[in-house]
Specification:
InterPro entries: PhoX (IPR008557), TAT_signal (IPR006311), TAT_signal_bac_arc (IPR019546), WD40/YVTN_repeat-like_dom_sf (IPR015943). This is DUF839 domain-containing protein. Pfam families: PhoX. There is one protein chain. This protein is mainly beta. The protein has one domain: TolB, C-terminal domain (Neuraminidase, 6 Propeller), CATH 2.120.10.30. Helices cover 3% and strands 42% of the residues. It is built from 1 helix and 28 strands. It has one helix spanning 7-19, and strands spanning 38-39, 55-56, 62-68, 84-92, 95-102, 110-115, 121-128, 134-139, 145-149, 156-159, 168-169, 178-184, 189-194, 201-208, 211-221, 226-227, 229-232, 256-262, 265-270, 275-280, 285-291, 305-310, 316-320, 326-330, 335-342, 350-355, 361-366, 380-385. Strands 1, 2, 22, 23, 24 and 25 form a 6-stranded mixed sheet that branches. The chain has a 5-stranded antiparallel sheet with strand order 12-13-14-15-17, with no helix packed on it. A hairpin with a 7-residue loop joins strand 5 and strand 6 (110-115). It is globular and about 55 Å long. Mean pLDDT is 92; it is low at 1-26.
């Protein structure tokens, strides 16, 4: 660190000097020519007073609670799991399914809620059992959910949202403290984050696209933003040396969290330094989409970055772990602003943001709810409906 400069001042200086060049990715090639996202007015307007569910939303949006941990899902006989975490939506006939991980040890797994065309809950059920600390994950182009275990020997489990086919573990994708996954159908790879203070960013190249049972695990290599490369991890399945320490020069990321791919760019978050990264897959270039230390005016609106998803409009939605319990929107124009806030859940975190297939409903959870109890037995899972940009 240069003498006389704190981290925020130093990062601002290097960014202005050209440390964050424009992406070639379609969504963000204009926005970050001027640097990472900055605070501004939300495209949805200001947040209103809390509604009956304790959510502050913009004008025109409404909410409902669709599930509570350790209680039966309304209209079903199924008890919702504790500590709801990563999630995704899948089309199902005229309706859709929302899947949700359970981040508890030993009995984690995944549950699902099925909705009809009107949004009415018609069933809830289990799609994965016998796994531990299921944190985030990702949807595949062939309609399955990748549920990731967050412990040192954690695996990626491929599940069927309909619960009709048995889940499968994929050791070839590596045994490490998995967080999230994002599929890149253009390069036919799956990107993976690792929740360690010195974790890495990986990609898995399956031998056959659509079959994750075999393939090559690679780790990102580089010295910072700019051009990066990939190197094969020698022993991803059975190791004495952790995967993150097997390749010299592997880049380190401080607490990898959410991961989302769209338009040629894979966005992923790191909670330790409060960043949203952007990997331009075509150019093999890494840049910073958001960093609270690179906010040049006012207070950073987004802290405790965690899960991430996107909308058809190109907007990113980033959930907070703690801070003031918001989901912030980052627009393709490089503006970051609060989209919603959960009131009264001060010891919780927001998890599992995902849009319904038609883009009109956003699902997410407050993992520990109002009590903040670490076991997550007070978790809430919400639906927000309204005029989302598309």
């Amino acid at each position: 660190m240069p003498t006389g400069l704190n981290r925020r001042t130093f990062l601002r200086t290097t960014a202005v000097a050209g440390g964050t060049a424009a992406f070639s990715g379609v969504l963000w090639q204009r926005a970050f020519a001027a640097g990472p996202a900055q605070p501004g007015a939300s495209p949805y307007g200001p947040l209103l007073a809390p509604d009956g569910n304790g959510l502050q939303l913009p004008q025109g949006f409404t909410s409902r609670v669709i599930a509570r941990s350790m209680r039966r899902v309304e209209g079903t006989r199924y008890t919702w799991h504790p500590a709801p975490d990563g999630g995704a939506c899948f089309p199902d006939g005229d309706g859709w399914i929302y899947v949700s991980n359970s981040e508890v040890p030993i009995v984690g797994g995944v549950s699902a809620v099925r909705f009809d065309a009107s949004g009415r809950i018609v069933s809830a059920y289990r799609i994965l059992n016998g796994t531990s600390l299921n944190c985030a994950g990702g949807a595949t182009p062939w309609g399955t959910w990748l549920s990731c275990e967050e412990h040192d020997l954690g695996l990626v489990h491929e599940t069927d949202p309909k619960g009709e086919r048995s889940a499968r573990a994929h050791p070839a994708m590596g045994r490490f403290k998995h967080e999230a996954a994002a599929c890149d159908p253009d390069r036919r790879v799956v990107y993976l984050t690792e929740d360690q203070p010195d974790g890495c960013f990986y990609r898995f190249r399956p031998s056959t696209w659509g079959d994750l049972s075999s393939g090559t695990l690679e780790v990102l290599v580089g010295s910072g933003t700019g051009a990066v490369t990939w190197a094969r991890v020698p022993n991803p399945e059975i190791w004495l040396t952790p995967t993150r320490d097997q390749v010299p020069g592997a880049m380190r990321f401080n607490g990898g969290e959410g991961c989302y791919y769209t338009g040629g760019v894979c966005y992923f978050t790191t909670k330790g330094d409060n960043r949203v990264w952007a990997y331009d897959a075509a150019a093999e270039r890494l840049d910073i989409a958001y960093d609270d230390d690179l906010v040049t005016t006012g207070e950073p609106p987004l802290a405790g970055v965690d899960n991430i998803t996107g909308a058809r409009s190109g907007d990113l939605y980033v959930a907070e772990d703690g801070d003031n319990m918001e989901i912030n929107v980052i627009t393709p124009d490089g503006v970051v602003a609060p989209f919603l806030r959960v009131v009264g859940h001060d010891e919780s975190e927001i998890t599992g943001p995902a849009f319904s297939p038609d883009g009109t409903r956003l699902y997410f959870s407050s993992q520990r709810g109002k009590s903040g109890f670490v076991a997550g037995t007070d978790g809430y899972t919400y639906e927000v409906t309204g005029p989302f940009r598309r």
